[in-house]
Design brief:
Layout lengths: L3 E14 L2 E14 L3 E5 L6 H8 L7 E6 L2 E2 L5 H11 E4 L11 H10 L8 H14 L15 H13 L5 E5 L7 H16 L4 E6 L2 H6 L2 E4 L4 E2 L1
Parallel strand pairs: 3-8, 3-9, 6-7, 7-8
Antiparallel strand pairs: 1-2, 1-4, 4-5, 9-10
């Protein structure tokens, strides 16, 4: 079995806007090994989020191929692709995407409700979510709603939610972009533990140099090369 967790081959994305074609990038090829932490670095507007969406199967490339854990995404139906993402990938976004009417604990449990692994006892799911909140330092905040949490706390809830299905891959889109310096450093350390101690494959698109310093490798989207 290949040791590559993420493989992009000659990836390209073009949007059509009336009579005008807008090419975001083309000919992008790189790979990420299992258990590796990689930062994709670049300024705002350089196509980092577009690339992440293509790699995770949230968007289709105009050209090229994406392979995750040996699976070619373009060969899957939309339903199978959604199930694959739910079981294999955890997502962490800049704006958290927590449901305001749900508590921290309920937000963490949400992906388990869409799992294709079969029914699980609610008590076991709740206990698993509680353990994850404890791991991210929010043991005493499980009954709080997002509006009652700071930005850093909301991001930690989002990280716990991303881990609840025990994914092999974590895709992170500017996870510190909405946080102050102290809270951003806390999230950086949490991400570092995920690939150093738990051997998750972590792919982060960012312009935050702090994240670039703690990952195994950095891919520059402007230079299209490892730095």
């Amino acid at each position: 079995m290949s040791n590559e967790s993420v493989e992009a081959v000659n990836l390209g994305k073009t949007y059509w806007d009336g009579d005008r074609n807008l090419e975001i990038f083309r000919g992008v090829s790189f790979s990420v090994r299992r258990g590796e932490g990689v930062a994709i670095l670049g300024p705002s507007g350089s196509g980092k989020t577009t690339l992440l969406n293509l790699l995770s199967g949230l968007d289709r490339p105009t050209e090229g191929t994406v392979r995750l854990e040996g699976v070619i995404l373009s060969e899957m139906s939309e339903d199978k692709k959604a199930a694959f993402r739910n079981e294999t990938i955890g997502f962490i976004f800049q704006f958290y995407h927590l449901l305001s009417e749900f508590t921290a604990l309920e937000n963490v449990m949400l992906p388990t409700l869409m799992s294709t692994r079969g029914p699980q006892a609610p008590s076991k799911l709740k206990e698993k979510a509680r353990r994850l909140l404890e791991r991210v330092g929010l043991k005493d905040r499980e009954r709080h709603f997002p509006s009652e949490l700071s930005g850093g706390e909301q991001q930690r809830v989002a990280i716990a939610r991303a881990l609840v299905n025990d994914p092999k891959l974590l895709f992170c889109d500017e996870p510190t972009g909405n946080l102050d310096l102290r809270m951003g450093l806390e999230i950086v350390e949490l991400l570092k533990r995920l690939f150093e101690e738990e051997k998750k494959t972590v792919l982060v698109v960012t312009h935050d140099e702090r994240i670039a310093r703690i990952t195994h490798r950095v891919w520059d989207i402007v230079k299209r090369d490892w730095v």
